[in-house]
Amino acid sequence: MILPIADIKTSILKLDQVELFSYYLNIDTSEIYSCLGDSRISICNPLRIDNNPSLTFIEDVSGGEYKVRMFDRANILYRGDIFDLVGILFNLHSNFNQDFCRICQQIMNDIHVRKEPKRVKSLATSKHVNKILITTRAWNNTDAKIWSNLFTESELNAAHVFPVRNGWIFSDICNYSYTSGDPCYAYYLDTYNDIPLYKLYFPKRSKGGSKPRFITNNSIYPIEAICELEPAEVLIITKARKEKLLIKKLLPRITTNLKIEVTNLIGESLILKKEFMDKLFSVYPYIFFNLDYDRAGIMSALEYKRIHGVETLFIPNGKFGTIDVGGKDLGEIRVNCGVNATLALMQEANEYIQTFIKNLKDESMY
User: Fold this and answer.
1) Is residue 251 domain-shared with residue 291, that is, in the same domain?
2) pLDDT tens digits, one per residue of 98-120
3) CB 292: neighbour CB atoms within 10 A?
C-alpha cells in the first residue's frame, strides 16, 4: 500500500528527530541535546566553515506538530526542520511538492537501509557533495591590495588560489559575479568523485554579516587539502588555509632539524575525532595545534589536551594579561610587523617543539 505523503510526513515526525539530525549532520546526539537544554549553547555547523560556533537546536510545537529545528545564528540558509536539512544535503527544496516527496522518500530509504541512524566516517557521499563551479579572472590591483603583503601572484597560483569571476554555488544558476567591492577567491582543496572541492573566501564581507565570508562544499574531510599532506616527524595543525600556506612558505627560512608538515582544520572550533587523530598519529609521531588565543581557541586547546594529549601553540595577543606581539596570528603579524618578526616567532615555536620532543624522549628512557 502506498501511503499519502501527509501520512509519510507524520510517520517521519514520530521518529526520534534528534537521531535523524545526528545521522545526517554526523554529530553526536549529546551535542544536540545540549543545545535543546540550553539556548545559549551553540556548536560548529558541519555543513559550512563555522569558526565561531553558530548552530543550535530548538523545539517547535506550532501547528500541532512537534519538530526539532536547527537554527544557524549566522547563516539563514541553515535553518529548519529535518526535511529542510535533507533538502540542503540533496539539493532539494522542501517547499516544492515534488521535492518534498523525494525528501520524504530519501529519509524512509535511509531508515530502512540502515535500520537506525549510526555514525558514518563522513557525512558526504557522491550524492551529498554539493557542486561549486567557478570561472576565473585575471589578478588585478584590488587583489594585490588584499594579498601582496602575504603572497605573490605566482605563489597564489602555485597554491591553487584563484580569483573568481563567476560562481555557481550549490545552484545551476550563476549566483555570484565579481565586483571590486565583493571579491571572491577560490581555494582548490581536492577532488571527490570527480567533483572539485573548493573553499570560497570573500575577504570584504563582515564577520557575522548577512553574507558568509566562507563557503565550502568540502563535507568530506575535517582538514583541508588532505591530498597535500606528506609524511614528516611533526605535524602542525593550524586554524585556516591562509595561515597554513603562509607557514609552509616561510618554513624553509627558519633553522630546524625537524621535518615539519602543516595542515589546517575546516574550522577552529572543530574537535577532531579519535579515529582521525589515530590515523594522523600513525604518520606523524608529534602533533601540535596552532590556534588563536581567544575563548574559542583556548576551549578547543583544552579539549585537544584532555582528549588527545596534544599541545597547542598560541601567539600572545594582549588578552588575559599576555603581551601583544602585533597580531592574533602569523598572517596579521606578517602584515603589521614584517617578515622578520614573523620568522622570529616561528623560530621560537620551533625551539619549543624541539625541546618538548627532547623532553618526551628523555622521559621515555626512565
Assistant:
1) yes
2) 888 888 888 887 775 544 433 32
3) 22
